């Protein structure tokens, strides 16, 4: 059995491939090694396996994850080895390579991740040739769910929402500005905490003009600070994976067009395409 995982900061999608045409899927929490410990991953993942799943039957694990870079790759490999004790092959790669393989296969192009976090690259069909660091939640991640959530929270806390939107926000979450700040700073996963507030923009009653304002600001900064910094970026189509990019894809396409980029595939998740890549 081959096991393929696509792990973001919020959720991990898994596919177990028994034969090319025989697969089953399940989900677990997201395991970004910058935010969670090996012990946390072990406990959470063991609770997430389907009841009839036997880790000892897995011959290969291909784990692609947000935050899997540098020394974090070895940390995640060792964590997975402690769970899949009889698996001879355990490969850990970054989520960006997963996005490139799922979106483009063996074709070259430009790839973006717009989910809880942000990432982007130029891919030559086999490897990533150029990547500008998103700088993560604290310093960057423009265009991500975490970034959009921060914009919403700061608008509420600083009184920049119109009275009807502010009232709807408070009625929805029942949190004062002080309580929001306390929770955000106390959260063990602040990126996930802030990203959760992006749902407010798609709620019934939220002013569409406010949604457009916030999303356009976030995507505008994503293009200004990241996309446009790539050499000859406008020669590529924008291919994007992630719930944020997919949910607000109409705005994303408009911003991309303003920067001279056409759009290719924009999909909410990639586990099906990534599993197909590994199933051959």
Layout of secondary structure:
Blueprint lengths: L1 E6 L3 E9 L2 E8 L8 H11 L11 E6 L5 H13 L5 E6 H10 L4 E6 L3 E6 L4 E3 L5 H4 L5 H13 L5 H11 L3 H10 L3 H6 L12 H18 L12 E4 L1 H5 L1 H10 L4 E5 L3 H9 L1
Parallel strand pairs: 1-4, 4-5, 6-9, 9-10
Antiparallel strand pairs: 1-2, 2-3, 6-7, 7-8
Helix pairs in contact: 1-2, 3-12, 9-11
Number of strands: 10
Based on CA inertia axes, which overall geometry fits? globular
List the secondary-structure elements in sequence, H or E.
EEEHEHEHEEEHHHHHHEHHEH
Return the CATH architecture of one domain. 2-Layer Sandwich
Q: Uncertain segments of ≥5 residues (pLDDT<50)?
A: none
What fold name goes in the CATH topology slot of one domain? Nucleotidyltransferase, domain 5
Proportion in helices: 40-55%
How does this structure look, described?
Helix content is 43%, strand content 21%. The chain starts with a strand and ends with a helix. Strand 7 (118-123) and strand 8 form a beta hairpin. Helix 9 crosses helix 11. The protein is globular, with a radius of gyration of 19 Å. The chain is of the alpha/beta class. It has a domain at 2-99 and 271-279: ATPase, nucleotide binding domain (Nucleotidyltransferase, domain 5, 2-Layer Sandwich), CATH 3.30.420.40. It has helices spanning 38-48, 71-83, 95-104, 136-139, 145-157, 163-173, 177-186, 190-195, 208-225, 243-247, 249-258, 271-279; strands spanning 2-7, 11-19, 22-29, 60-65, 89-94, 109-114, 118-123, 128-130, 238-241, 263-267. The strands form two sheets. Strands 3-2-1-4-5 form a five-stranded mixed beta sheet, sandwiched between helices. Strands 8-7-6-9-10 form a five-stranded mixed beta sheet, with helices on both faces. The protein has twelve helices and ten strands.
């Amino acid at each position: 059995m081959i096991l393929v995982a696509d792990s973001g900061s919020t959720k991990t999608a898994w596919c177990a491939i028994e034969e090319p045409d025989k697969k089953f899927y399940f989900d677990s929490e997201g395991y970004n090694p910058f935010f969670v410990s090996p012990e946390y991953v072990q406990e959470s993942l063991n609770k997430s396996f389907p009841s009839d799943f036997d880790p000892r039957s897995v011959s290969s694990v291909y784990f692609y994850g947000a935050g899997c870079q540098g020394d974090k790759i070895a940390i995640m490999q060792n964590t997975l080895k402690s769970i899949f004790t009889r698996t001879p092959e355990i490969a850990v790669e970054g989520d960006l390579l997963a996005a490139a393989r799922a979106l483009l296969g063996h074709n070259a192009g430009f790839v973006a991740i717009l989910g809880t976090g942000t990432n982007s690259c130029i891919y030559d069909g086999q490897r990533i040739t150029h990547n500008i660091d998103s700088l993560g939640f604290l310093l960057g991640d423009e265009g991500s769910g975490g970034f959009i959530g921060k914009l919403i929270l700061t608008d509420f806390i600083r009184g920049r929402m119109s009275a009807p939107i502010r009232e709807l926000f408070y009625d929805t979450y029942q949190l004062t500005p002080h309580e929001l700040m306390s929770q955000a700073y106390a959260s063990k996963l602040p990126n996930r905490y802030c990203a959760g507030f992006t749902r407010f923009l798609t709620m019934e009653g939220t002013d569409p003009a406010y949604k457009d304002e916030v999303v356009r600001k976030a995507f505008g900064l994503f293009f200004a600070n990241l996309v446009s910094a790539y050499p000859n970026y406008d020669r590529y189509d924008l291919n994007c994976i992630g719930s944020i990019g997919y949910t607000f894809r109409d705005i994303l396409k408009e911003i991309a067009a303003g920067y001279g980029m056409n759009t290719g595939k924009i999909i909410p998740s990639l586990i099906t395409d990534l599993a197909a890549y590994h199933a051959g």
